[in-house]
């Protein structure tokens, strides 16, 4: 049962990511780097929030935490952009981008968990 929850949640998260990515690029005129940053930071916040809200491993965690947030965030696109960026931009800028997203993701995760605890 858990594998079905993760699979359906992941599919939904991936579709939602596509819609958010397209909207961010079209509406805000962001490039792919900024769009992926917004998506991954938002996903990190959500997974922190969901982890605290579920309080235990449950169907909610499998669907929303592992499935949806796993499908919504995109490590593959992040890795691809880093690879492209090394050849197309200043490597120092790409390293700063990578480091800021990794630490920004951790910060957003902790922020989501902290706010979920405070609001409970």
The CA-CA distance between the termini, in Å, is 29 Å
N-to-C SSE series?
HHHHH
- The stretches of 5 or more residues where confidence is low (pLDDT under 50) are none
Instruction: Report the structural category.
Output: mainly alpha
The averaged pLDDT comes out at 93
Task: Note the total helix count.
Answer: 5
Shape: globular
The number of E-state strands comes to: 0
Instruction: Indicate the radius of gyration in whole angstroms.
Output: 15 Å
Strand content: under 5%
Q: Fraction of residues in helices?
A: over 70%
Biggest β-sheet strands, sense, barrel: none
Tell me what you see in this structure:
- By secondary structure, this protein is mainly alpha-helical.
- Helix content is 89%, strand content 0%.
- The protein is globular, with a radius of gyration of 15 Å.
- The mean pLDDT is 93.
